[in-house]
Amino acid sequence: MKIIVTCGPSYEPIDQVRRISNFSTGRLGIALANALAMRGWEVMCFKGEQATCPDPLRVHATHLFSTNQNLADRLASLPEPERIGAVFHAAALCDFRVIRIVNEAGCEISAPKFATSGGQLNLVLAPTIKLLPLLRDWFPRARIVGWKYELNGTQADALQKAWQQIQDNRTDACVLNGAAYGTGFGLCIPERGFKPLPDSAGLIGALSEWLNDFAMAKISSAPA
User: Under DSSP, is residue 170 helix (H, G, I), strand (E, B) or coil?
Assistant: First the structure.
């Protein structure tokens, strides 16, 4: 089975030397990709260029990405997308991009590198392209897993958002974590319900077993 794992942060440029990004090391995605590869699956890992986790990737292929659009272009152009069996979208992608920069006088400005002597700058941000809603069209036969990192509200609120993510994006599962959820991870799978997991090792094990069950069911249902 061919599997895609995305991990690490994307970034969006401010100028040619500065950028905005997310707090993400890529560690969980790297560990997941390696665990799936150890089971004998053909894993492609798309890793953010700014991922700081030094753990080596032991997968079939590694591809680096920069911005949200760069990752989208790479995924959308993969050959034989119908052969992708699963997509684990663990990358921490930017929610906003810089569309213009305004100085203290209210004038829009541009430069390869903004000088601090120019004073205060105001960044005008707009939402970036979201990849999760696009994955089902790109990979119609794949099991698709999204991530939901929630900081505000109660655990019940976070769980509701996880289930809503699955419905809105036509995905097959959602991994939930963050301060609103609490310690560890929650794994939401419509046909199996909600499963709390204490740590990343437990999460990776649960995802691997779920995918293995899916693979075995496909084999058993294939015509003789």
Answer: coil
Tokens 């890529």 identify what position? Answer: 26
Q: Residue 133 — φ and ψ, nearest 5°?
A: -65, -15
Do 187 and 175 touch, CB atoms closer than 8 A? yes
Residue pLDDT, tens place only, 158-214: 999 999 999 999 999 999 999 999 999 999 999 999 999 999 999 999 999 999 998
Rounded to two decimals, what is the model's pTM? Answer: 0.94
Cβ atoms 164, 156 nearer than 8 A = no
Is 94 in contact with 21 (CB distance < 8 Å)? yes
What structural domains does the chain harbor? 2-94+131-221 (3.40.50.10300)
Residue 127 in contact with residue 156, Cβ under 8 Å? no
Half-sphere exposure of 164 (CA within 13 A, CB side): 6
With the CA atoms of 181, 182, 184 and 186 taken in that order, what torsion angle do they form, in degrees rounded to the nearest 10? -20
For residue 51, give the nearest of 8, 94, 98, 102 by alpha carbon.
Answer: 8
d(CA 133, CA 41): 25
What would the pLDDT profile of 116-171 be if each residue is shown by its tens digit? 888 999 999 999 999 999 999 999 999 999 999 999 999 999 999 999 999 999 99
Q: CA quadruple 79, 81, 82, 85: dihedral positive or negative? A: positive
- Report yes or no: 52 and 110 within 8 Å, Cβ to Cβ: no
